[in-house]
Amino acid sequence: MLVRISRQSLRQKIESGEEFVLVDALSPMSYAMSHLPGAINITPDWVDDRARRRIPDLSTEVVVYCADLSCNSSVGVANRLIELGYRNVRHYAEGKRDWVKAGLPLEGGRV
Q: Is pLDDT above 70 for 8?
């Protein structure tokens, strides 16, 4: 069972400059258009290739998200990170749509 993180908690982490890695599990095109502040892009297909390089420390806190509750990419990425030995993985299940609906900022080409 994935540990969930709320929008409020995630927002506090970003705004306070806490040390953690935010992972956008959506497609590279979607990521390029807009993503949550500071997010890196790791899709389900890229986890095995990129996770160790982008997140070398297995104890790093990682928060994974995708579009919304019906999007499974973030679940796939989060579960794979756990299988690879990451010990501090959280899931922002409501995702980018929830973030935007709350009027919070995004980064990227279409922002």
A: yes
82 touches 109 (CB < 8 A) = no
Question: CA angle, corner 62, sides to 61 and 68, nearest 5?
Answer: 145
Average pLDDT, the chain: 96
- Whether the Cβ atoms of residue 96 and residue 67 lie closer than 8 Å to each other: yes
Helices (H), the chain: 7-16, 28-33, 47-54, 73-83, 95-101
* Total residue count of the chain as it appears in this document: 111
For the segment 77-95, what is each residue's pLDDT rounded down to a tens digit?
Answer: 999 999 999 999 999 999 9
Q: How far apart are the C-alpha atoms of 33 and 78, rounded to whole Å?
A: 22
